Amino acid sequence: MTEAYNILFTGALIVIGVLLLACLIRAIRGPRIADRVIAVNMMGTLIVISICILSFMMGEGWLVDIAMIYTMLSFLAVVLLTKVYMGIYREKRRQREEGQQDA
Amino acid sequence: MLDIIRFVISAALTLAGLFCLLSGVVGVYKFRYALSRVHAAALLDTVGILLMLLGVIVATGFTVASLKMLVVIAFLWLTSPVAGHLIGRLEVTINDELSRDADVLDQDYVEQEKVPETTTTPADDTQEEAQ
Question: pLDDT value at position A4?
Answer without folding.
Answer: 87
